[in-house]
Fold JmjC domain-containing protein.
Amino acid sequence: MATKPFRPDEARRIMRFLHKPAVFINMTDNWPGRDWTLEHLAVCLEKAVRFRVGKKCEKKAPLFETECSYLEATLAEFLCWTSGSDDASVGPFADYPLSEYWAYADYKYIALLFQEKISMFKDIMWSDFGYPGLDGRESTLWVGTNGANTPCHLDSYGYNLVFQIQGRKCWHLFPPDDTECMYPTRIPYEESSVFSQVNVMRPDMHRFPAFRRARAHLVTLEPGQVLFVPRHWWHYVESVDPVTVSVNSWIDMEVDDEARIGEALTKTVICALKSKPSMDNKDNWLNPTEDGISTHDENMQYLNLAVKAYMNKRSLHSEDLIKCPEQPSPSALKRDSSGHLKTPVAEPVTSFSLPFGPNLIPVTCHGDLTQKPLVTNPKEALISKDNTFFYTQRGTKTMHTDTHEKEEAISVTEEEEEDGNAGATCGRISTNDLLDCLLHPDVIKLVTKLMIDRQKELH
C-alpha cells in the first residue's frame, strides 16, 4: 500500500489550523469509494431516488430548490438519460431534454441509501483524516449532470470534507467576513443553511452593488481529491462534466449555545410571519429539505430550551471558576532561594507551518469571477522555493501565492449596464423583504444578546 502524504493525526492537525479552503491530494488512492462511479452505483442501488431538476438558463436570480422540479428515478434510469439512450425517452426523464435541463440527486444520506448493504459504508474512509470510526454512514451522496448546482449558501453547523469521485465540480467560495456582500436571506428557509440572494455566476450589480467587494476563492475539484471547506464559508457549487459523483461529510457539528438561540429565534419569526395567509405569502418558502412547519408553541418551546441550556452552562462555568480559580494562591507559587515569589514563565506558543505543496493546495482569492478556477491537477502545478504556486494550463502560465488577499472589485459589464435600471425606485415592501431585514445575521446577534442579557438580570 502506498504511503499517504499525511498521517491521520497530521491531516486532522492541518485542518485545525486551516482557516481557508484547501485541497488534499493523494489521500484517497486506496479508498474503495474511488470505484463509486455512476455505472457502479447504478448496479448497487436499485431503489428509486429523488432528483432535483432545473432548466439551463442565464438569469440573474438564483434558482433555489423551491423553484425546481422533482422526480423519482433509479440511477440506472438516470444513466440511460445521461448516455442518450432511447429508453430515456419513455422513462421518468422523458419530459426533460438533456440539452435543456440538468438533474441532481443531492443530500442523499448513504446510511439510508445502502441500509441493506452496510458494508459499503466502509468504502469511505474518513479515518485517514483523523476521524476514526467515521465513514460513509455519516456522509451524503451527490450525483448530477453538467450544470447541476447548489445555490450559494453557508452551512450553520460544522465544516465540510468533500470527496470528488467522478467528474469535476467548480467551487466558488467566499469568507465569512464577506457576509455583508452576499445579501443573506432565510427564504427559502432551511434550519442549517443561510442562502445568498446573489447569483454569483451572473450577479445583478444594480441590485447587489456590495457584491463587488466579495472575495471569490475558486477551485475545480477533480476525481480523487478532497476539499476542506471551513466553518461558515459561503459556497456555490456547479458540476462541469456530463456526470459527477461526490461524497460530503459535515464534521464537528456541535453548535455553540448562542448560535442555537439565534436559530430558534429565526425559526420562530419565520414560521409566525410566513404561516399567516396574505396576498404576498403564497410563495413556496419552506425548503424541501425541511420536514414541515412547526407550530408557534413548538418554536417557543425550542427557543426557551435553547436559552435555558445557555444559562445552565453559564451557571456551571461560574461554579467551576469559583472552585478552580485561574490564578493560583500565593502559597502555591514557587519561591526562589531568597524567598521571593518566582515570576511565572509563559508557556511557549506552539507554531505550525501548514505544509502546502503538491499534496495540499490552498484555494486562493481570485477576486474577479471571470478568472479561471484554481488548477488542482498536480501535473499542472509547480512550486517554487518561496512557496509560490505556478499553474500551467493549455500552454499558459499564471502565478498565485498562498498569501494572496487582494480585494478586487467585480466590474459591471456593458451587458449588465444595459440590462439594469438607471435609477432605483421605491417599491412595495413584501413580507420577505421584512424578513430579510428582521433576520439579518447582525440583527439576530443583537436580539440574541438582548435576550441573554435580560435572562442574566432575572437570575
